[in-house]
Amino acid sequence: MTNDYSDFLPQLRASTEQLLKRLDCFHRAQVLAIGDLTLDEFLTGQVERISREAPVLILRYENTQQVPGGGANAVYNLAKLGGKVKVAGLVGKDDQGKALCGIFEAAGIDTAGILIDSQRPTVTKTRISGHARQSVTQQIVRVDRKSDELPDLDLQLQLADYIRQQIPTVDAVVCSDYGDGVLTNLAIESAVVPGKTIVDAQTNLQRYSGAMLFTPNLPEAEQAVGYAIKNPQTLMQAGRDLLNLTQAQKILITRGEEGMTLFERANGEEIKNSPPPTSICEKGEFAIQSWDIPPFNKTDVFDVTGAGDTVVAAMTLALCVGASGWEAAVLGNLAASIVVRQFGTATTTVEEMKEALLSLMNLE
């Protein structure tokens, strides 16, 4: 076991029973997820020969797999982890939109908030892959279908109205912003509720000012603060600057193989169900405390695609059932350590998370 765990493992062991209880309660959480709904298609075939028409491969078609991507992956992760999920978003009047809604309905997701946009296609990313006999499958090209135009104003108003109606009925609101036009200013104004809204946005975090929690990855955090995060000092400064920029209560920066760091505004009291913070900084307008959480899986990482959506989903459900920010971050980290072992966008379950948590207890 690496030194990354020497201080952390005792904290994890002391919290294991409580973390297992949080997982057992995930099914109680009710969440409204708003996002840019994307369909990921994986089309696979066997390479037969080079075309006579052009210097390109000819594939003998084998199969197509369709899975939720983008903001839809966050929605799907919430459902697969047991949450009761309502989704708000847009799909086109096309087969891809029907397929995505069908996947959601099969997972028990309430799709009443998915509106049909007849002017724009369902955001779809089609990855075409091929293989020769007895060789690995490799991606050849990706075809994206999307529109750079915003939805019609009438659709924006309908979506905002649906969001406002549903907020009193849920424990949390998740905004999964991939920049594809669903989360307009109208939608954001309806969705941001202090103490209730969790934001996963790639850019313009300040648009969601007042949300409870933001979960940028390291490049997104660096873009937001305008400088490189390369040591503990700049990391702490970035946490403070992000809390100030967003007026949030919590910021989680995911840092890949370095794990993740949670920042919270300090109120002078020890936060319940959290170990002592890694760092406390009382400089500036408000005090902050932070916790470093090491990666739970460094060796079996095959694909990090969609891992951020998994982190958001697990954290959201944990916070809904009373977890502290630290507990929620640990469970988010745990969920991500499972899905990165699989290729493509993936999900995990409460049972898999329990098994993974208990296996960590055997590490020395």
From TrEMBL:
It holds the Pfam family PfkB. InterPro entries: Carboh/pur_kinase_PfkB_CS, PfkB_dom, RfaE_dom_I, Ribokinase-like. Residues 33-348 form the Carbohydrate kinase PfkB domain. Keywords: Kinase, Transferase. Signal peptide: none annotated. SUPFAM superfamilies: Ribokinase-like. It comes from the Bacteria. This is Bifunctional protein HldE. It comes from Microcoleus asticus IPMA8. The gene is hldE_2.
